[in-house]
Amino acid sequence: MGLLDGKVAIVTGAGRGIGREHALALAREGAKVVVNDLGGEVNGSGQSTMVADQVVEEIKKMGGEAAPSYDSVSTREGAKNIVKTALDNFGRLDILINNAGILRDKTLLKMTEEMWDVVIEVHLKGTFLCTQEAAAVMKEQGQGGRIINTTSFSGLIGNFGQSNYGAAKAGIYGFTRVASMELIRYGITVNAIAPVAITRMTKDLPMFQGASEEELGPQHIAPVVVYLASDLSKDVNGKILGIQGRHVFAYRMSVTEGVKKKEGVWTPQEIHENIKKILGE
Ligand code: NAI
After folding, report:
1. Mutate to test the pocket of ligand 1, among 16, 124, 243 (most ligand atoms within 8 A of CB)
2. Is 165 a catalytic residue?
3. Could you report the per-residue pLDDT of 27-60, keeping only the tens digit for each?
4. What is the pTM of this model?
5. Which of 240, 220, 225, 226 has its CA nearest to residue 179?
6. Where are the domains of the chain?
């Protein structure tokens, strides 16, 4: 008996890194999996069907069921096709993991519009399109569902040289909060993860130098996603779970106690005098 027996899942960007581990872990728990991956480079260029096919083969070798999808998450047609792959092959859809992603890092003053647009399109628009297409099917089925998005430290806290990626990932945070409120009426929960793991996307970053696969590999991320995809998490909605190796925690937007004026309006000078209290420092 698996935690996800009888369920059908889509994992976007499932051909490599974190998404591949999600797909394998979901299949191990009995889910039938659509392995979506465009098979491109880290910067979003190029395309290959081999990347998704390999993971489908791995799942089949384990005795699981899987189907490949090579569409891009960032177009309406692509998102429709990804969901259609689940329906055509497995007849239903219960779980969507929005994981596909690319990087085009540059400091703000050097960033081109193209670098901005393509990153927002894959991460933020892709998450919107796939969620909308999947949630429509889940609503129609009337048996609830699970949607798990992928945000990042970069969007939630900030990271140098990633204004496009950080904006997209912060957008996914806001999108997750709102979608979780709107879709819960259909029994669909929407949560997000903020992973940190060694993949081709991150292996050259200074923080990963000297770190081992065992400590910080993407295999540590998948169990949290399986939990969020399962019935175990039915009371968890609109949450952001951080995972870094063996450390699992939650990100929360916090509001300081601030200061209140008894009457009238604040002056800029008074704001200056109270700034430490306002900032909660
Ligand atoms: P990765 O580069 O190993 O895997 C991403 C996969 O997405 C690739 O196989 C790529 O072909 C696919 N992909 C890219 N654009 C696509 C599109 N338009 N349609 C379908 N598939 C597409 O990267 P990694 O590290 O596994 O990242 C997975 C997710 O986790 C991304 O959303 C990333 O932003 C996020 N993330 C990763 C962190 C890390 O430490 N590795 C940190 C924070 C977030």
Report:
1. 16
2. yes
3. 999 999 999 999 999 999 999 999 999 999 999 9
4. 0.98
5. 240
6. 8-253
Residues whose CB falls within 8 Å of the CB of residue 43, separated by 6 or more in sequence, listed in order: 102, 103, 104
User: Looking at domain 8-253, does it have CATH number 3.40.50.300?
Assistant: no
**How far apart, in whole angstroms, are the C-alpha atoms of residue 41 and residue 201?**
9
* Ligand 1 atom at minimum distance from 103 CA: 34
- Give the pLDDT confidence of 70-88 residue by residue, as tens digits: 999 999 999 999 999 999 9
With the most atoms of ligand 1 within 8 angstroms of its CB, the residue from 10, 18, 47, 129 to mutate is 18
